[in-house]
Design goal:
The chain is mostly helical. It contains twelve helices and no strands. The structure holds fe (ii) ion (2 copies).
């Protein structure tokens, strides 16, 4: 890497620090503000929950579906932020005696992800006290982190960049325009999105820095790792969709027919794949970065692996 490129990147890390300082918020003072969750509100907008694909649900059931999926949304972020933070701390070692601006950007990133995990734990506790018992989280953050961090850095950064880009897409396209959303939930999403904007920039910088270190053979292996990571994410989504559909049907005040029950399960899985895989892939930004690093056959390998999930 030339000196000019190093300087250009330092300026980008500096901008991420400036944005981080400007936006910085506090969980209690700025986000929760002593509020609890109201059972009369939606927790996740229809554009993400895809509840319209279940026309046989009553208005109350639709709302409960958005609450179940909203709770899972908070938990999935809490889950992935465990590994994301661990990876950022690992990467920050490269800067300890080097670029101190980049080091600060990564340390702030890590600090923010720790705060986000705390925020999502608080939201989970609020959701648990507003909703009937029986909800279950199907993946454990440290076990998922062990699996993810066992893969190559390139693939871990690709997955992370994808996650932090779709966070932006979800907020701008579905959450910000939603009108019936719980005010507390909307504040959670707003504040999270604001800090995630810098993360997406840092992810790309770190992903490109890693990409520049790889040989063609290493990158080819990293593409396989990325496919394994996405398959792993889908495994978690399948388990969570099954658990959430069973919880939804189990606490309902009426009996669903076998056909309706299987439609609920299919719709929840489709919604989770939409939220955590498809919406980010469809947005051009992630694919643009990916395509600038890999060959056409590698890109096709990734699309073929994704095809059954789309
Ligand atoms: Fe976050
Ligand atoms: Fe983040």
């Amino acid at each position: 890497m030339s000196n000019i490129e190093v300087n250009a990147n330092t300026a980008r890390y500096a901008r991420a620090i400036a944005a981080s300082k400007r936006i910085r918020w506090d969980i209690d003072e700025d986000v929760i503000r002593g509020r609890t969750l109201d059972v009369g509100d939606d927790y996740l907008p229809d554009g993400l929950s895809l509840v319209d694909s279940l026309p046989f649900l009553s208005a109350r059931e639709r709302r409960f579906m958005s609450q179940v999926q909203g709770r899972t949304y908070a938990n999935v972020f809490g889950l992935v932020e465990r590994y994301i933070n661990a990876k950022m701390l690992d990467l920050s070692r490269d800067y300890r005696f080097g670029d101190q601006v980049a080091l600060e950007a990564l340390v702030r990133f890590s600090d923010e992800e720790l705060k986000h995990q705390e925020l999502f734990r608080r939201v989970e506790a609020l959701a648990a006290s507003a909703m009937p018992p029986g909800y279950a989280e199907m993946a454990e953050p440290n076990a998922v982190a062990q699996f993810v961090l066992g893969k190559s850095t390139w693939s871990v950064l690709a997955l992370t960049c994808h996650i932090e880009i779709f966070t932006q897409v979800h907020y701008k396209k579905s959450i910000e325009p939603a009108t019936a959303l719980s005010p507390l939930w909307k504040d959670v999403f707003l504040h999270h999105w604001q800090e995630e904007s810098q993360h997406a920039i840092i992810d790309e910088l770190e992903w490109r820095r890693e990409d520049a270190k790889l040989t063609a053979a290493e990158r080819d292996a990293a593409v396989d790792d990325l496919i394994e990571l996405v398959t792993g994410v889908d495994g978690i989504l399948q388990a969570q969709a099954r658990a959430d559909a069973e919880y939804f049907i189990g606490v309902a005040e009426r009996k669903f027919s076998a056909g309706e029950a299987s439609a609920v399960h299919d719709a929840v899985l489709k919604a989770y794949r939409w939220q955590y895989i498809v919406s980010g892939v469809q947005d051009g930004k992630f694919l643009g970065i990916l395509a600038s690093m890999v060959t056409q056959p590698q890109l096709e390998r990734i699309s073929d692996a994704l095809a059954p999930l789309m």
